[in-house]
Amino acid sequence: MSNFSDAVAFVNRFQKELPVNVEGLAGVLGLKIWESHQLPEGIAGKLKRDPRNGGPSGFSIIVRGPDPLVRKRFTVAHEIAHYLLHKTRFIGELVDDALYRSTLSSKLEAEANALAAEILMPEHWMGRFPSLDNAALAEKFQVSQEAIRIRVDSLTRRRALA
Amino acid sequence: MRKILSLAALVFCIGFPIALWEGYRFLPKSVVGAVPAPSFAEGVTIVLAALAIVLACLALFVGGLAIWGYQSIKSEAAAAAERGVQKAVDGALKEEIAKKLNEASIKRAVAREANNAAQYLDLQYPSAFPAADPPLQVEDKAIATEYPEDKP
């Protein structure tokens, strides 16, 4: 699945409730999630071809243990996005630094961020709570307020294009 | 062909009365003597009749010319109108096509810029999830178990 809209259609099937269960989505895809306290501060996480410890897909997602929960959720969503969109574009493992940059181009990283945002903050859920402010929305979606602000801005711009 | 016919009709109209008159003049005396000489009134009548015939032929010729001229003017006017309309339509079409092309290129440029802006926003997500001192409402907890290869 290398097409962004196909990937969105796929993840939309697993977004029946909030907050979105990213661990469940990873499980459906056969990805095993691990935490690591050995990852340095400059690394957010990685997607690893891991026949020994990986899930049925043969891949593991390893997130940095000391990171806050919402950041770990975003890291998992980001690595799921890489798995869905870019798994044929790297050998061994794909390591994302603290700014979610890797050996892939920034265009592909932006694409993974966009799909991660779609996983955590589904478009079909975003407009359902007009009375909630960003803080309440952040708690509902289990993301940061800044992420909510960026998501709303991004969706507004993309809708203006359509 | 039409011009030749018209010329022939004209020659006939003029030549016929002259030929009649000349034929009468060269008739043998015996024949002329047998016919009583026309009086002045008869002579005038004959000339006027011939003139009437000539004028009638001339009227027919002028009528033919008028019909031909009308048709020429009609077809020329139609062709001129067609050329004029074609020119006007071409101009309007060119203007409209240029406008559409311009609109399309503006739309493409706007879409490209908006897409770049959206991609720029996507690249901002990492900063929305800081690794330290998070201003978050959600309680931190483990999301998974420790990676076995990192365990001491």
What does this structure look like?
The complex is a heterodimer of chains A (162) and B (152). Chain A has helices spanning 4-12, 22-28, 69-86, 106-120, 123-126, 134-141, 145-161; strands at 31-36, 43-49, 59-64, 93-97. The two termini of chain A are 24 Å apart. Chain A is an alpha+beta fold and 162 residues long. In chain B, helix 1 (2-25) runs antiparallel to helix 3 (40-122). The model of chain B has no long low-confidence stretch (mean pLDDT 82).
Helix content of chain B: over 70%
Please give the most extensive interface between any two protein chains, plus how many residues each contributes: A-B, 55 and 35 residues
How many DSSP H or I helices of chain B?
Answer: 4
Structurally, how many domains make up the residues of chain A? 1
Largest sheet of chain B: none
What's the helical proportion of residues of chain A?
40-55%
List how many beta strands of chain B DSSP finds: 0
Measure the end-to-end span of chain B.
116 Å
Rounded to the nearest angstrom, the distance between the terminal CA atoms of chain A is: 24 Å
CATH architecture of chain A: Orthogonal Bundle
Name the average pLDDT of chain A: 91
Report the oligomer: heterodimer
CATH topology of chain A, by name, is Arc Repressor Mutant, subunit A
The chain-level structural class of chain B is: mainly alpha
Q: pLDDT below 50 for ≥5 consecutive residues: which ranges of chain A?
A: none
Task: Output the structural class of chain A.
Answer: alpha+beta
The succession of helices and strands of chain B, N to C, reads HHHH
Shape of chain B: rod-shaped
Any descriptors?
heterodimer; A: 162 residues; alpha+beta; Arc Repressor Mutant, subunit A; four-stranded mixed β-sheet; 7 helices; globular; B: 152 residues; mainly alpha; 2 domains; rod-shaped
